[in-house]
Write a structure and sequence with these properties.
The complex is a heterodimer of chains A (364) and B (446). Chain A has 364 residues and is an alpha+beta fold. Chain A is built from twelve helices and twelve strands. Chain A has two domains: 83 residues, 2-Layer Sandwich (Phosphorylase Kinase, domain 1); 191 residues, Orthogonal Bundle (Transferase(Phosphotransferase), domain 1), CATH 1.10.510.10. Classes of the chains: A alpha+beta (364), B alpha+beta (446).
Chain lengths: 364, 446
């Protein structure tokens, strides 16, 4: 059990800012048993509507328990902020891993392990009549022992509406500030017509995740949102990039750069781009991987396999019992509690100031 | 009954004046001397019909040389159509789509938020038209003020308000809805819903009314024409043009003006009472709405507005048909009591046994689905063709009617969903769209 009391936690460093700037994730030490945890700190006042989303997130996570879904430990309010405690996922999100260590994408076997675990989470969610609606690398977290857990349940939706089981949903997921979440969403979800969408929408997002993990870049990034929409509606599918699908001769470097968002901001970005092109053109991903992503990215949701069917896909046969995810992504440094982290220390000071305020409060 | 009686008393029927109506004269079919292929703008879809007014028809007649009038027989395969250009237009961050409906104040169009990709509807108000409607500008101001405060799942959400001073237009951006109950009723057998469906809408109406009355707002114009449905069948109360915010500090709900639609007005307004309970007006109108949804008729009829109001004023509604069953009949009779004090409150209606128990769908009854202006029963976004025009400028293509029929399949009238179109093994499709995939190397067409 974890106590819902700020005094039992020592914040050690900032992991990331998220949810469009309304929340910050810290690593922290739970003092009673010296266990590392992650604490998400929400600034509830920033927008009113977010409060119900956070509530939704917590309620959903309380209800759902699966080895591949980020568990909820406890939550509490301190000052004007809401704190939600989860286990610390030491290697961070797959998006962080891609950005920092694998710009050209994860090794295929690592992709297989991650995708299998995400599919297991989806299989469970769909059985519980939930649609996740934000399957993306930033919501796939890797723990110290290589365990993969799906987070981001704030945009999940239940097919049980007003006590009745719905076949389809029609609403877009809640907006995420900068609308990046749309890139992973299925064409039928974005279309918002009377047909609606069901859990197969998550399978499409898993297909986009395949490309994201393998290519390093998110398909449709840097393309106008409306073009991404029409491309999906017209049935064009993102692809895994290797010698069989890339390079396309018509592309010049500047176009390439804008398509793949590979501009790292460093001066030699052109070099980085051509290096990336060479990596794509010089590698070969397995046919089963291509097949898996193609199956998942089919335009017609009824043709897409279910999570259960995909788990039996030959692509996953390459995983052996001895395969260990942290070994495959050896370059990645785990998030270490860093006591010298200035910002965390500053925050700690701020918190202690608040405690002083509390003790000197006038008592009538 | 004259459909005008279901509209507001105040809104005078404005006739379209010539300079105000936009005509498309691009696809007039004129006989030609040459036997080459005819070029026609617009695909042969039913909705691309061009309407000409009398003047234009006269002009056409004049242009025809009577002596040389002859018609060439042209094989339909030789007629080449050009897909109609959908010029993409942006207002703020929104991409405009097709017209969803039209009112005396202006048009309602579909829009797409280009950032969130959320479908929206926009009410376009023209200042010039608004001035001609009694209380027009005042009603719009009131509607905006009220909608800005109100937030409930059964009340239409005002998302954004934009002004264009140059064009003298105002844009009220709202949640997207697929249909109006009024239109659905008109298109259904017997102009009524199965009780199961009416029950679903009525309970949502009660939820919305309870919220409104709790917020001190009286709608005063509840009727099927002001009840919309979203994609997921959520009912939305709309049109707050004649609604009134009650005095927060007054224990009474006294109102002095009634501008609602005649057929839904209570006796106290029909009799010209100077003041009346606002909440009980909504109860009455909801009663008439329920009566209408379940029977396809109105409790009061009249050949004209005066006869109708006279009949309402007497307060003797046509008794609900026995086929409705005793519980619903009793509920309707109670809601349509002449004396406002005898009408039940929202809470009392909620506890009524007809509301408590969801009626089953009787054998032979079918749920009524929202009608579509086009032949698209899925109500797919009408913005997509405009976006296609914008992003794939070369997408425009010439095609013959035979191609078109072929594309539609043998029946020629079936609507293909976009999903079917793109998954279909149609090489022609591929060619037409090929220009797009060259730009996105990470994508390929199915």
């Amino acid at each position: 059990m974890f106590n819902p009391d700020i005094n039992d936690y020592q914040l050690t460093s900032i992991i990331t800012e998220c949810c469009g700037g309304v929340a910050v994730v810290y690593s922290a030490l739970y003092k009673p048993n010296n266990q590392n945890v992650a604490i998400k700190r929400y600034f509830v006042d920033k927008t009113k509507e977010n409060a119900s989303l956070i509530q939704q997130d917590i309620l959903t996570r309380k209800e759902l328990q699966h080895v591949n879904i980020l568990p909820y430990l406890t939550s509490f309010v301190h000052g004007r902020e809401l704190y939600v405690v989860s286990p610390l996922m030491t290697f961070g999100s797959c998006r962080d891993i891609l950005d920092r260590y694998f710009q050209e994408g994860l090794p295929e076997l690592a992709c297989a392990i991650v995708l299998r675990d995400v599919l297991q989470a989806l299989q469970y969610l769909h059985k519980q009549l939930y649609i996740h609606r934000s399957v993306r690398a930033s919501h796939v977290l890797v723990g110290a022992n290589g365990g993969v857990r799906l987070s981001g349940l704030r945009s999940a939706a239940s097919l049980m509406v007003r006590g009745r089981r719905q076949r389809h949903l029609h609403q877009l997921p809640p907006p995420d500030g900068d609308n990046t979440n749309l890139m992973w969403l299925s064409p039928e979800l974005l279309e918002q017509n009377l047909k609606g969408y069901d859990e197969k929408s998550d399978i499409y997002s898993l297909g986009v995740l395949c490309c994201e993990l393998a290519n390093g870049a998110v398909p449709f990034a840097e393309v106008p949102t409306t073009l991404m929409f029409t491309e999906k509606v017209r049935g064009s599918r993102p692809q895994l990039l290797d010698c069989s699908t890339f390079p396309e001769p018509c592309l010049d470097d500047s176009e390439m750069k804008s398509m793949y968002n590979t501009d790292s901001g460093v001066g030699d970005s052109a070099d980085a781009v051509s290096r990336l092109r060479q990596v794509y053109a010089g590698r070969k991903l397995s046919d089963t991987f291509h097949h898996l992503s193609e199956m998942a990215l089919q335009r017609d949701p009824d043709k897409r396999p279910s999570a259960t069917q995909l788990l039996n896909h030959p692509f996953f046969k390459q995983i052996r019992k001895t395969d260990y995810l942290p070994g495959l992504i050896g370059r990645v440094k785990p998030i270490k509690p860093d006591l010298d982290d200035m910002s965390a220390l500053l925050l700690q000071e701020k918190l202690s100031e608040m405690e002083i305020e509390k003790t000197t409060e006038w008592d009538f | 009954m004259d459909p005008r009686m279901c509209r507001k008393i105040s809104s005078s029927e404005s006739l379209p004046d010539a300079d105000n109506v936009e005509y498309e004269v691009s696809n007039i079919i004129a006989p030609q001397e040459s036997d080459d292929n005819f070029m026609l703008d617009g695909s042969p879809e039913p909705h691309s019909v061009t309407w000409l007014d009398n003047d234009q028809i006269d002009e056409l007649d004049l242009n025809l040389d009577q002596t040389n009038l002859c018609f060439h027989r042209v094989d339909s395969a030789d007629i080449i159509y050009r897909s109609k250009k959908k010029k993409c237009k942006m207002v703020g961050k929104y991409v405009m789509g097709d017209v969803l409906g039209e009112g005396s104040y202006g048009k309602v169009k579909e829009m797409l938020d280009s950032e969130s990709l959320c479908r929206r509807a926009v009410k376009i108000l023209k200042k010039r038209k608004l001035r001609r409607i009694p209380n027009g500008e005042q009603n719009v101001q009131r509607e905006i003020q009220l909608l800005r405060i109100l937030r409930h799942k059964n009340v239409i959400e005002l998302v954004d308000v934009m002004y264009n001073d140059e064009k003298q237009k105002m844009y009220l951006v709202m949640e997207f809805c697929v249909g109006v109950l009024q239109d659905m009723l008109e298109g259904s057998p017997g102009k009524k819903f199965p009780q199961r469906q009416a029950h679903d809408y009525f309970t949502q109406l009660l939820d919305g009314l309870e919220y409104l009355h709790g917020q001190g707002v009286v709608h005063k114009d509840i009727k099927p024409g002001n009840l919309l449905l979203t994609l997921d069948q959520t009912l939305k109360i709309t049109d707050f043009g004649v609604a009134e915010a009650l005095d927060m500090f007054s224990p009474e709900d006294t109102c002095y003006t009634g501008q609602g639609s005649p057929a839904f007005q209570p006796p106290e307004i029909a009799n010209g009472a100077e003041q009346f309970s606002g909440v009980k007006v909504d109860i009455w109108s909801s009663g008439v709405t329920l009566y209408n949804m379940t029977t396809g008729r109105y409790p009061f009829e009249g050949d004209n507005v005066y006869r109708l109001l006279e009949s309402i004023g007497r307060g003797e509604p046509a008794p609900p048909p026995p086929s409705l069953g005793p519980t619903l009949g009793l509920l309707l009779t109670n809601m349509l009591k002449r004396d406002p004090d005898l009408r039940p409150t929202v809470h009392e209606i909620r506890r009524h046994s007809w509301v408590q128990a969801r009626p089953p769908l009787e054998p032979g009854e079918r749920m009524v689905t929202p009608r579509s202006r086009r032949s698209d029963e899925l109500h797919t976004s009408t913005v997509i063709p405009y976006l296609v025009e914008r992003h794939y400028p070369s997408a425009q293509e010439y095609f013959t009617e035979r191609d078109y029929r072929h594309e539609l399949g043998d029946g020629g009238s079936r609507t293909l969903s976009t999903a079917e179109l793109s998954d279909a093994e149609s090489s022609r499709r591929k060619r037409r769209w090929h220009s797009s995939c060259g730009r996105l190397p990470s994508c390929r067409l199915t």
